[in-house]
Design brief:
Radius of gyration of chain A: 22 Å
Oligomer: homodimer
Strand order of the largest sheet of chain A: 3-2-1-4-5-6-14
Number of strands of chain A: 14
Distance between the termini of chain A: 26 Å
Chain lengths: ~325, ~325
């Protein structure tokens, strides 16, 4: 029997989850739920209904797992604990510093309701975290380095768009190749923020805007750009749409550690090259939705992260098949 | 309280497990067990006793997990099911084709005795398998490529040593760089055995041996070399000991798949660069020994593989700590 999935929120990530659910034979999309007027939300799936988010008040019997595709800043801290009272839920909460608090809130709600939740899945947090953890278990003295990119940072792109005179913008986070190579060599370098990544900005300015001022405002923006070597390229709107429409991303987790009292070195790298960040993230969420349904059936309730879920739970196939094909 | 570990078999792998157990604060080495005369086995750990393997008949109360470091061809198929009747066990059984049968035998023995077993851990099978599985769950249409090396294949080195006139030998398995690059590009190439790896042999010949014949025998050896481009280098014993004493290994699992009905590509790579194959493998076994002890305490008995064990079980720290540091 299929796992019946609801998607709450239909932005880039919701569309990515939709693709993954539709591509999986054992997952069935029951509905897309939106805080917008449902009649104005056009989804890709034929024969699947768009509901107002309010409809979730009465659909507990129709949905096995609700995948919540909201923002980490204000949406998920409220939505995930609230919906965990009625549904098994999955989210991609990615504000690392607030994960302990979010975990506690979701865990309390899910346990009280007999539901299962998994938070903070995707690739970072998510698959990158899993690889940091496995590497830590194997090489407890290892030093972990995380590099992001080359890829579009939506948060940084938004920050540029808020500057006066900017019409549109795209920001690429780019790992510094020499830093990557130093880490891969196992030399355990100490790297500053500036030494690990650079930031490349493509900006469409309003007509007549002061380009020098915009460039300066970007490069000196606290937290976002001031600690990085940043390049700013002014381009036309046509060029932005033509060459920078996608949302590619990726990166590497590299752990370099040793055995034999430091005499023997080992380097573990997990690397992603994604042509679409939200489509890949959506695929991870769909796999964890499957896991959540299985866990709940087994009576394993409360909040989980990727650390608490055995890999086999993510797959539709049985153990025999998995051992024969992937072990 | 520490997890009390016994190591059965004290070759390169047993020594690797010993290093990992001694480096972990929550693991305690109770004893090394050998089928050789214990008085002739000198171990690295001070204050730890070497026992005859026969002593395991009566040490059930002293050992929480027995790590079995035997060969996959003849040792482990017998030893792991036999010892699973008395102990929680871990092994690194790596004959892929015989895993279903081995799993069944170990599962029956462990379940009947209320013990927990994990088989086939290490890096391949083991960490490579886990990465093949996660990637399959996320990108079900993905194509997985496994490359090994550059590293010493002990099986191939042994095969060369059995040729008449060969005193010693070391064989390196080397992935073909252009094949790696083609796979990393996401182009999903079809690759023959010959196109994926080459084999590099360093051979010390007996004085007066017929080098041309040895080279021909190596290059035409069925299964081991005939399907590969093989190079044979004759070197002195001194050079072998000086430059080829280590057992480095590694490789990559690369999965290339797509979303959005094939229109969007993604590439996932997990890569290892290990200065010592047995020390890294031993570290993986030690981490899974910790997991086995926890699972058995929870009443989760029977045979497991890396697919069935959540990553957090491999770590000594609690969930709060892991979420704060690795998520």
């Amino acid at each position: 029997m299929s796992v019946r999935i609801g998607i709450l929120g239909y932005g880039n990530l919701g569309r990515g989850v939709e693709m993954a659910v539709n591509a999986a034979e054992d997952l069935e999309l029951v509905g897309v739920f939106s805080r917008r007027d449902p009649s104005k939300v056009k989804i890709a799936s034929e024969g699947v209904k768009v509901y107002s988010a309010d409809a979730l008040a009465n659909m507990q019997k129709d949905i096995d797992v609700l995948v919540i595709c909201g923002g980490s800043a204000t949406d998920l801290p409220k939505m995930t604990p609230a919906y965990a009272k009625d549904y098994n839920v999955v989210d991609s909460f990615d504000t690392h510093a607030r994960i302990p608090e979010h975990f506690k809130n979701v865990d309390e709600a899910a346990k009280a309701a007999g539901k299962t939740a998994v938070i903070s899945v995707g690739w970072d947090p998510g698959m990158f975290s899993v690889n940091r953890l496995y590497s830590h278990a194997i090489l407890p003295n290892g030093k972990a380095y995380t590099f992001w990119g080359r890829g579009v940072s939506q948060g940084h792109s938004d920050a540029i768009r808020r500057i006066e005179g900017v019409k549109d913008a795209r920001q690429y986070t780019v790992p510094v190749e020499s830093a990557l190579e130093a880490v891969r060599s196992g030399s355990n370098p100490e790297l500053t923020t500036r030494q690990k990544h650079t930031r490349e900005c493509y900006v469409v300015a309003e007509e007549g805007a002061d380009l020098a001022r915009i460039e300066k405002e970007i490069k000196t923006m606290p937290n976002y750009f001031d600690e990085y070597d940043t390049t700013v390229n002014f381009i036309s709107e046509e060029e932005l749409l033509k060459n920078h429409a996608g949302l590619p991303h990726g990166g590497s987790v590299i752990v370099s550690g040793s055995t034999n009292e430091g005499k023997t070195k080992h380097v573990i790298e997990y690397k992603l090259k994604l042509d679409s960040n939200p489509e890949f993230t959506g695929s991870v969420l769909a796999a964890y939705a499957r896991a959540v349904a299985k866990l709940n059936k087994e009576g394993n309730i409360g909040c989980k992260t990727a650390f608490d879920i055995a890999p086999a739970y993510l797959c539709p196939e049985e153990g025999d098949f998995l051992r024969a094909h992937f072990l």
